[in-house]
TrEMBL record:
<dbReference type="GO" id="GO:0005886">
    <property type="term" value="C:plasma membrane"/>
</dbReference>
<dbReference type="GO" id="GO:0016887">
    <property type="term" value="F:ATP hydrolysis activity"/>
</dbReference>
<protein>
    <submittedName>
        <fullName>ABC transporter ATP-binding protein</fullName>
    </submittedName>
</protein>
<keyword id="KW-0813">Transport</keyword>
<dbReference type="InterPro" id="IPR032823">
    <property type="entry name" value="BCA_ABC_TP_C"/>
</dbReference>
<dbReference type="InterPro" id="IPR027417">
    <property type="entry name" value="P-loop_NTPase"/>
</dbReference>
<dbReference type="InterPro" id="IPR051120">
    <property type="entry name" value="ABC_AA/LPS_Transport"/>
</dbReference>
<keyword id="KW-0067">ATP-binding</keyword>
<dbReference type="GO" id="GO:0005304">
    <property type="term" value="F:L-valine transmembrane transporter activity"/>
</dbReference>
<keyword id="KW-0547">Nucleotide-binding</keyword>
<dbReference type="Pfam" id="PF00005">
    <property type="entry name" value="ABC_tran"/>
</dbReference>
<dbReference type="GO" id="GO:0015192">
    <property type="term" value="F:L-phenylalanine transmembrane transporter activity"/>
</dbReference>
<feature type="domain" description="ABC transporter">
    <location>
        <begin position="17"/>
        <end position="257"/>
    </location>
</feature>
<dbReference type="Pfam" id="PF12399">
    <property type="entry name" value="BCA_ABC_TP_C"/>
</dbReference>
<dbReference type="GO" id="GO:1903806">
    <property type="term" value="P:L-isoleucine import across plasma membrane"/>
</dbReference>
<dbReference type="InterPro" id="IPR003439">
    <property type="entry name" value="ABC_transporter-like_ATP-bd"/>
</dbReference>
<dbReference type="GO" id="GO:0015808">
    <property type="term" value="P:L-alanine transport"/>
</dbReference>
Length: 260
């Protein structure tokens, strides 16, 4: 099958992600154990669990940062288990990280331009940008999507922590992503910044699905339609936000009681 035909077939795939028996070992340490998850195209899902439950390792397996020791991963119908991270990015997978990974010396707009240019076909061109540059236009659209229009020329180093998190979300939108992995985007945010993050995530185009790892349930459960709970590297429970929020086992192990 040609690459074009393959992409057309994948575009109609009902599932964005399919993990089957995914495990990841670091020597004798079992970080992931036989994890099987299916996420539909356009679905928004939270992955919850205590520290050390395997959430970030799961992301690393999906993105190719640490490929699985066993099991298979399919992205929109294509087996990507052995593909390097940059090939998964080319297929429309994006992620953010727990710790901000930004270019502190650049402006906000330049950061978004660099993200857009980095996944474009002309990324190696030495032609100077102009107002009609598609990457510059995309950067301005991302700037608006994450509510940072008024800070376009501000150095990233001068942004508040919450604004840097918003910028990371904007950079993850570069190049028409098909699916995004958000790793604790609300960490360290104030209540006002959390509300703004919720607005941004809810306003993302409906075709962009995502998985969010988040300890703040007031954020996580408001921006997803399904939840997976992990424990000791394995999948523990799955359900809707209401089902998980009211589950006695989840309350006991992760929440320390009922969550209001």
């Amino acid at each position: 099958m040609s690459e074009t035909a393959l992409r057309i077939a994948q575009a109609g795939a009902a599932n964005a992600l399919e993990l089957r028996g995914v495990s990841r070992h670091f020597g004798a340490l079992v970080a992931l154990s036989n994890v099987s998850i299916t996420v539909r195209a356009g679905e928004r899902r939270a992955v919850l669990g205590a520290n050390g439950a395997g959430k970030t390792t799961l992301f690393n397996a999906i993105t190719g940062d640490f490929p699985p020791t066993a099991g298979r991963i399919r992205f929109f119908g294509e087996d990507v288990t052995q593909l390097p991270a940059h090939e998964r990015i080319r297929r429309g997978l994006r992620r953010t990280y727990q710790t901000s990974m930004l270019f502190k010396g650049l402006s906000v707009l330049d950061s978004l331009y660099l993200a857009a240019r980095g996944v474009s076909r002309g990324r190696f061109s030495f032609v100077r940008q102009n107002e009609r540059d598609p990457s510059l236009q995309a950067a301005r659209e991302m700037l608006h999507a994450v509510h940072l229009d008024h800070l376009a020329d501000t150095p990233v180093a001068d942004l508040a922590h919450g604004q840097q998190r918003q910028l990371e979300v904007g950079m993850a939108l570069a190049g028409a992503p098909r699916f995004i992995l958000f790793d604790e985007p609300a960490a360290g945010l104030s209540p006002v910044e959390r509300r703004e993050l919720v607005q941004i995530l809810r306003a993302l185009p409906a075709h962009i699905g995502y998985i969010i790892i988040e300890h703040d349930l007031d954020v996580a459960l408001r921006v997803v339609e399904s939840v997976s709970v992990m424990h000791n590297g394995a999948l523990f429970k799955e359900g809707t936000p209401d089902e998980i929020q009211n589950d006695a086992d989840v309350q006991r192990i992760y929440l320390g009681g009922a969550h209001g």
